[in-house]
Amino acid sequence: MKEQVRAWLEEDKLDLFLGYMMVDGHPLPHVFTRKNLDELDKLVVSPFRYPLEKIAGDIIAAKPDTRIGIMGRDCSQRTLNVLALANQVDPKHIERFNVNCCPTRKDRPECSSMQPRTPGGFKRAAGINPDAEIEEIQAMPQEERFMKWMYEFQKCIRCYGCRNICPVCYCEECSLESSDLVEKGPLPPEAPLFHLLRAVHMAGRCIDCGLCEEACPADIPLRLLYRKVNSIVKDLFDYDTGVSTTLPPFAVCNLTGQQA
Ligand code: SF4
Ligand code: SF4
Q: What is the domain extent for residue 70?
């Protein structure tokens, strides 16, 4: 990868490459350019903890013609597709270098970052197993399901980590910060408004990268929640999130009745 990135930069195929560099033992996002080629020795393939695609979008917003290379994983293309549909990035300006960043879970071969976890006894009894399948949760009696989700939501400390880390959250004005919609009062935020509002916004947009769940200090199974939302989008509108840059964004399909 280092040689490929070096060649791209030296041959002027890219203006910069967005990847990870080890700093004091931590893999942090870093911009590699022709001016700092020597730093390429510190380029690492790291667990993906930052939304590099969103950083690319910010760079393109400031300098639209920048040609960017990006370290990607399986879901990065879906992210770029969603961002392209929303005019946040121009796919022509982005070159992806795909890396298999995480061990593949046997029963989820489509996802490279899913790793099995073992929730503690209380979480198993009161909350939602983050590794559960949607159908498993759906099969619970409605009241039990409701209580379990409410248990999860009331742990939220409204830190906005889930939104800030999300590669497809790009709105400059966020409805989660609107006091008309989400009370600014004492913590925890009123359950389940904050979460349902975000879930609605993720419909047809979430590409199932798992960064939000990884960032959540309250251990809320956010990924499962958004997978459920996207499964509804698929069932009702036959819309597959992030698979194409030629379809209109989901919100537009929804309004016009156009289907994937
Ligand atoms: S899994 Fe979470 S962080 Fe990733 S796209 Fe969906 S909502 Fe955003
Ligand atoms: S990261 Fe977790 S605790 Fe923070 S706002 Fe999101 S759901 Fe709430």
A: 2-98
Is residue 146 domain-shared with residue 40, that is, in the same domain? no
Q: Are residues 131 and 247 in the same domain?
A: yes
**Residues with C-beta less than 6 Å from any ligand 1 atom:** 165-168, 202, 206-212, 222-223, 226
Q: Are residues 249 and 126 in the same domain?
A: yes
Write out residues with Cβ below 6 Å of ligand 2: 156-162, 215-218, 220, 222
Question: Does residue 128 sit in the same domain as residue 246?
Answer: yes
Query: By alpha-carbon position, which residue is closest to atom 7 of ligand 1?
Result: 206
Tokens 């006894």 correspond to 121
Q: Whose CA is nearest to atom 6 of ligand 1?
A: 206
Q: What total of structural domains would you count in the chain? A: 2
- 166-194 in b/e burial notation, b at 16+ Cβ within 10 A? bbbbbeeebebeeeeebeeeeeebebbeb
The two tokens of residue 76 are: 């990065």
Residues 164 and 89 placed together within one structural domain of the fold: no
**Is 0.90 surpassed by the pTM of this model?**
no
Q: Print pLDDT tens along the chain (260 aa).
A: 889 999 999 999 999 999 999 888 888 999 999 999 999 998 987 667 889 998 998 898 899 889 999 988 778 888 888 998 888 888 888 887 777 554 434 455 555 455 556 777 777 778 898 888 899 999 999 999 999 999 999 999 889 999 999 999 988 888 888 877 777 776 666 668 889 999 999 999 999 888 999 899 999 999 999 999 999 999 998 888 888 877 777 765 554 554 43
Residues 139 and 233 in one domain: yes
CA atoms within 13 A on the CB side of 208: 20
